[in-house]
Specification:
This protein is an alpha+beta fold. The protein has a 3-stranded antiparallel β-sheet with strand order 3-2-5. It starts with a helix and ends in a 20-residue tail after the last helix. 13% of the residues are buried. The C terminus is likely disordered. Keywords: Membrane, Mitochondrion, Mitochondrion inner membrane, Signal. One of its GO terms (cellular component) is mitochondrial inner membrane. It comes from Suillus plorans. Pfam families: Band_7.
Length: 270
């Protein structure tokens, strides 16, 4: 009976020591940082990096922060410079500034991104979009995106948040502006079609003039030839026509007999 009592005396202290040792160890996973809170001195100035570390149970507590890049969409509807309603969506990749994690914990808490990014994102979007017309938001999209990125980086830096990327993913306009753009495109297409019809008519007119001039010149040439040669010119034309007919019939395999009288009188085939 003495041995079990002696063993029980050692088991209790060993259990307490094991519990204290286990409570004194904490792990910081990959991609995380820990902010140490001390009940006497408050939040430590330097965060703890990845790995296994020690703390004083009850006196100290480790708060883990995910420092990996996180995506977020920020959407807003605002007015452009020419008073057109614009719906714009940003895709933001953000992470906390590791060196200022204790300050982030003290001022913003664990949900720092939820508290900061939507508000400053809407603020920057409304301010930038108001400086451009609706058409300029389309034609100068790269300029608008760079302006939004620069202003948003500056505002996020004031809260110790780093932005790895800022890009416009969606940009849509109000119904009135969309209808106006469609009407303008239709009007431009109609204007181009009318321009093509006018150019085609002009080309046809010029072709008719050239054709008429050619026919008039040919008629004048024939008239001069007839004045000079008289009936001999007509006879020559008949012979040329007959020769052409004979050559055409001779080349046709279905023709087996060519008359030697009438119009085709004594006309050589070659």
């Amino acid at each position: 009976m003495a041995f079990p009592q002696a063993a029980s005396r050692f088991l209790v202290p060993l259990g307490l020591a094991f519990a204290v040792a286990q409570a004194s160890i904490y792990d910081v996973p990959g991609g995380f940082q820990a902010v140490m809170f001390d009940r006497f001195s408050g939040v430590k100035d330097k965060p703890t990096s990845e790995g296994t570390h020690f703390l004083v149970p009850w006196l100290q507590r480790a708060i883990l922060y995910d420092c990996r890049i996180k995506p977020r969409n920020i959407s807003t509807t605002t007015g452009s410079k020419d008073l057109q309603m614009v719906s714009i969506t940003l895709r933001v990749l953000s992470r906390p500034d590791v060196e200022h994690l204790p300050r982030i914990y003290q001022s913003l808490g664990m949900d720092y991104d939820e508290r900061v990014l939507p508000s400053i994102g809407n603020e920057v979007l409304k301010a930038i979009v108001a400086q451009f017309d609706a058409a300029e938001l389309i034609t100068q999209r790269e300029v608008v995106s760079s302006r939004i990125r620069a202003d948003l980086l500056q505002r996020a830096g004031e809260f110790n948040i780093k932005l790895e990327d800022v890009s416009i993913t969606h940009l849509t306009f109000g119904k009135e502006f969309t209808q106006a753009v469609e009407a303008k495109q239709i009007a431009q297409q109609d204007a181009e079609r009318a321009k093509f019809i006018v150019e085609k008519a002009e080309q046809e007119r010029q072709a008719a003039v050239i054709r008429a001039e050619g026919e008039a010149e040919a008629a004048a040439t024939i008239s001069k030839a007839m004045d000079k040669a008289g009936d001999a010119f007509i006879a020559l034309r008949k012979i040329e026509a007959s020769k052409a007919i004979v050559q055409s019939l001779a080349a046709n395999g279905n023709v087996t007999y060519i008359p030697s009288s009438g119009v085709l009188l004594n006309v050589p085939t070659k």
